[in-house]
Amino acid sequence: MFDAETIEIFKSHKTPFYYYDLGLLRRTLDEIKTHGLSKGYHVHFAIKANFNLPILEEIRKAGLGIDCVSGNEIKRAIESGFTGKQLAFAGVGKTDEEIQIGLDNNIFSFNCESLQELEVLNSLAGKSDKTANISIRLNPNVEAKTHKYITTGLNENKFGITADKLPKLFEMLPSLENISLTGIHFHIGSQITDLQPFKDLCDRVNEMQDLFEKNAIRLHHINVGGGYGIDYENPDDNPIPDFKSFFEVFDRNLELRESQQVHFELGRSIVGQCGSLISKVLFIKEGVTTNFAVIDAGMTELIRPALYQANHRVDVLTSDKPHKTYDVVGPICETSDTFQKKVQLPELQRGDLVAIRSAGAYGEVMSSGFNLRERVKAVYSE
Ligand SMILES: *Cc1c(COP(=O)(O)O)cnc(C)c1O
Q1: Residue 9 lies in a domain
Q2: Of all atoms in ligand 1, which is nearest to the CA of residue 137?
Q3: CA torsion 203→207→208→213, rounded to 10°?
């Protein structure tokens, strides 16, 4: 939670706003250094989770690279001081223009998601007189045990190439002169808190390595993607995910070849807990079965509850009265514009401040101008 001094600072800013605790971000990055980078692992931050410059600056200083899913994200990463060699570029629908941005910046890897994309990339790389390094994104058909909208590694999902397309891939590769297959890439979903799906993923990686080797392809790297989850229910008890256990799964289960690199693409687990959405109570309405606390932040600032039924803890910052039951709702004309239903919170009144926690990932980046609302601002701890 926040100390009295921080809450005083909150009172001096116009709500709603995102607040980022850069100290917590640094401590999180330190854990990644200790348990991941120290093993020689390469970690790319999934910039789509949060693209604010002060955050990228901390991540760059910690020695991580970036995982991009659009041309503008590549540009943002370069502007923030990352080099092309630190960038991976994924996405099922890269435009020619976006591919060109990747080529111009000589990125570490295009993570290719279809055979047609390989042909297009080969031809664009040829026109630029370049050889593009690529990883093939494989759909491992691993159940991530997370919300269906953020599951990506099943045959029914649109992502990656399924195993049945591999013979065709091996047949095509020799004729694609301007691409060099350097790795295989996976990403099975997001907000995965159980380690079993990652163990299953390692097994699939090992099988795939064998298959690629049988086809005379030696892989320079394995990219296992991201998806590690955070504790939305108890952000104060678990502000930093257990990276030790996470990296150990890969350390124990991946059968690596000599001098083979392992790459990760973590988003939520790096920035999720360092951000909160701070909002003010506008009105209290007594309902029939609950009371409504109408706050000045809505789905326009944080869409995750409306989009994925995500549960973000709401903490009251300026009241310690006895508890009452509330639905905490935003001002937007959508019933899904609700942050919490029937929660027990200290009695609220107009003007009280609340913090919607664990909102550092996929929060501000997904904010919108619906209802012509002002773009939400960011405040940093320093
Ligand atoms: C979104 C995404 C990630 C990051 O996912 P998190 O759940 O935030 O760790 C990694 N790789 C790819 C390809 C992605 O699309």
Answers
A1: no
A2: 13
A3: 140
State the pLDDT at residue 150: 59
Residue 196 sits in the same domain as residue 285: no
Ligand 1 surroundings by CB, under 6 angstroms? 46, 48-49, 67, 69, 90, 187, 190, 225-228, 265-269, 361
- What is the rounded CA–CA span in Å between residue 270 and residue 353? 26
The residue-averaged pLDDT of 154-179 equals 87
Type of residue at 180: S
Whether residue 15 is contained in a domain is answered as no
**Positive or negative: CA dihedral 224, 306, 238, 192:** negative
Best residue for ligand 1 mutational test, from 263, 265, 271 (most atoms within 8 Å of Cβ): 265
List, in sequence order, every residue forming a beta bridge with 228; answer none if it has no partner. 192
Q: Residue 53 in contact with residue 80, Cβ under 8 Å? A: yes
Q: Give the pLDDT band (50/70/90) at residue 44.
A: very high
Inside any domain, residue 132: yes
Residue 158: pLDDT over 90: no
- Is 14 a member of any domain? no
User: What pTM does this model have?
Assistant: 0.96
Residues 99 and 178 in one domain: yes
Phi first, then psi: give them for residue 340, nearest 5 degrees: -145, 145
Q: Dump pLDDT digits (tens) for 347-376.
A: 999 999 999 999 999 999 999 999 999 999
CB atoms within 10 A of CB 99: 23
Domain with residue 225: its CATH number is: 3.20.20.10
In whole angstroms, give the CA distance from residue 3 to residue 320. Answer: 14
The reported pLDDT for the residue numbered 159 is 76
Q: 357 C-alpha vs ligand 1 centroid, how far in Å? A: 20
Tokens, residue 106: 């000589």
What is the Å distance from ligand 1's center to 225 Cα?
6
Model pLDDT, residue 278: 98
For ligand 1, pick from 43, 48, 74 the residue to mutate: most ligand atoms within 8 Å of CB. 48
Which domain does 291 fall in, by range? 273-380
Of the candidates 307, 282, 240, which has an alpha carbon nearest to the alpha carbon of residue 24? Answer: 240
Write the DSSP string, 55-84: HHHHHHHTT-EEEESSHHHHHHHHHTT--G
